[in-house]
Each structure stands twice: as C-alpha cells, then as structure tokens.
C-alpha cells in the first residue's frame, strides 16, 4: 500500500519513528512521567510501534484491512441484490432479453442498466415521427413526452452512477490516508481524527449499499415498463400505464437515490451530503443572516433610545433620564 511512499520517504519516516522511541525512553529513564502518565506513554508507544510496522513496513494494512473491507462490502451488495431479485421474481420474466438477466451482484446491475438503456433508446427512436410529420402539432406532444422519458431515465441512471462511484472513490481515498490516521489514533490528543475517519468511511459504505438497494428495487418496475414499450407494433406512443409507469419509476428511483446520503448520515451521525445538506447550509446561512439583522435592529433601537434620553436631558423634558410621570411621583412622595 505504501511501498512507493516508503521508497521516497523511508529515511524520514524511520528517523521520525526512531526519534519517537528515543524520546519515550528518555521520559522513562529520567522519570519525567509518573503514575498514569507513564502508563499512557508506554501503551501509546506500543500502539505506535505496532501500527507503524503493520501499515508502513509490511503490507498488513492492505491485506488485512482494505481487501477484507471491500470484500465484505461486495458480499453485502451481492446478498442484498440476490434477495431483491428473489422478492421481485413474482413479476416474471416476459422474454429472454439482455436486460432481463438475473441481477445478483453490482456488476450485473450496471450491465443490465446499460443494456436496458440501449434498448430504451432504440424504442424511443422508433416512436419519433419523421419527415414533414414533425410539424404536426399533435405529434409534437409525442416528441415532448419521449424527451421527458429520456431525461427521466438519464437522470436516474446518472444519479445512480454518480452516487455509487463517488462512494467507492471516497472510500479508497480514505483508506489511502488510513495509515497516517491510524498513527494519529494512537495518541489521546488526536484520537478524535481517527474516530471521524472511521465514521466517514462507514458513512460512504452505507451510501453505496443504500444506492444499490434503491436501484435494485426500482429495477424490476423499470425493466417491465421498458419491455412493454418495446412491444409496440405502431409508431404512436401509448400514454397509458407503460408511459406513466416508466416515468414514475425513474422519478422515484432518482428522488430516493438523492436521499441515500441522508439515510447514511442519520445512521452514522455524520454530515448529510445530498440536497438536504445544501438546503441545511442555506437555511443555516439564512438563520445567521436573520440573527445578524435582529442584532443590528437591537443595536439600532438602543442607539435611538440613548439619543432620545440624551436629548430629553438637554431640553429638560427628561432630566437625568427620568420621565415626567416619575418626576411627579417624586414630588408627591409616591413610591413605586
């Protein structure tokens, strides 16, 4: 994992590790630390030594942490997709097409969506009017409907690809810096960085799982609608359950896929990374702006009150900041 890093910075890293061991030995030799402090330093030195050898000097971090983690993620995805496939088997398989193959892992899901998109585009091309018929106002409605279908399917597919690939990429990025984070986790002062790193890693893993689950559930309905559209024997679009079914399934899949980062963030207590995160940032900014406006209004009101009191003192209307009613009560001997 860090072989290239060690080729370039091995002298620096090994020197830093040796200096740390010398520093710890000096602390114990000179009795600089006693009691619980000495125990903490001793335990920290053992952890740093083990993590340094495990992550940097050997390939243990890659073989026993990264590979099993991604293997576990793939096993979870395979289990979920196979169970969704079994649950949706009641819909039947109307024809032996490329995109109606069994989807039991993430690679088959991507392949099925690609093949189904190609079949869908061929169907839409066959439904489009040609030649002078394009200028028929009634046929323009069909053109608009087909374009809406293409946009809905494209938005759903792009959202799924973006969410899933983003999660995998960020997991690899976090694992790549994980060796340094593990070193920081050995120290009490920087242990919070390790916990934040682990929380983010678990969050992106859940995003990938939820995204694949949502698309797998919606895949059965989308594939049925696409298949029915391919069976049209005319060039006219059928504005019935086929059209509405495909549009609604794509829209539902797109909307729920956007919410998968929020679902993962709710379980890991992390920051949401989808549309609600943007909305939350905007609302936070609006709240701060409102608070600032209220503060400016309060300061403005206090300034006006102070100026009015000063003016009253100068004109004798409100001497020493007292009102006329208060002056009358003082003369008559009335107490509040």
TrEMBL record:
InterPro entries attached to this UniProt entry: Conjugal_tfr_TrbL/VirB6
Pfam families named in the record: TrbL
Top-rank taxon: Bacteria
Keyword terms: Membrane, Transmembrane, Transmembrane helix
Signal peptide: none
Entry's transmembrane regions: 12-29, 41-62, 139-163, 169-188, 200-222, 237-258
Primary location recorded for the protein, binned into one broad class: membrane
Cell location: Membrane
Keyword Acetylation in annotation: no
Protein name per UniProt: Conjugal transfer protein TrbL
Species: Pseudodesulfovibrio indicus
């Amino acid at each position: 994992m860090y072989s290239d890093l060690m080729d370039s910075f091995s002298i620096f890293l090994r020197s830093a590790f040796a200096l740390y061991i010398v520093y710890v030995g000096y602390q114990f030799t000179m009795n600089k630390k006693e009691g619980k402090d000495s125990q903490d330093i001793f335990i920290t030195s053992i952890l740093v030594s083990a993590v340094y050898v495990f992550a940097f000097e050997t390939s243990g971090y890659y073989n026993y942490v990264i590979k099993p983690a991604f293997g576990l993620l793939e096993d979870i995805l395979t289990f979920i997709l196979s169970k969704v496939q079994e649950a949706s088997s009641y819909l039947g398989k109307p024809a032996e097409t490329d995109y109606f193959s069994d989807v039991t892992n993430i690679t088959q899901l991507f392949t099925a969506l690609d093949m189904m998109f190609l079949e869908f585009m061929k169907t839409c091309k066959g439904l489009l009017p040609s030649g002078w018929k394009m200028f028929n106002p009634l046929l323009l409605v069909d053109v608009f409907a087909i374009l809406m279908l293409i946009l809905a399917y494209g938005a759903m597919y792009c959202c799924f690809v973006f969410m899933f690939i983003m999660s995998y990429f960020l997991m690899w990025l976090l694992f790549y810096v994980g060796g340094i984070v593990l070193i920081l986790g050995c120290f009490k002062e920087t242990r919070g960085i390790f916990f934040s790193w682990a929380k983010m890693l678990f969050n992106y893993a859940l995003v990938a799982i939820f995204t694949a689950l949502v698309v797998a559930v919606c895949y059965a309905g989308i594939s049925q609608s696409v298949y029915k559209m391919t069976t049209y024997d005319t060039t006219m679009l059928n504005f019935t359950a086929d059209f509405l079914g495909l549009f609604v399934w794509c829209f539902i899949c797109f909307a729920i896929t956007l919410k998968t980062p929020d679902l993962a963030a709710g379980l890991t207590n992390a920051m949401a990374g989808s549309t609600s995160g943007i909305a939350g940032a905007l609302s936070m900014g609006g709240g701060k702006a409102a608070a600032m406006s209220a503060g400016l209004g309060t300061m403005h009101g206090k300034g006006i009150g102070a100026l009015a009191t000063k003016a009253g003192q100068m004109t004798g209307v409100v001497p020493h900041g007292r009102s006329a009613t208060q002056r009358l009560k003082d003369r008559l001997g009335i107490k509040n």
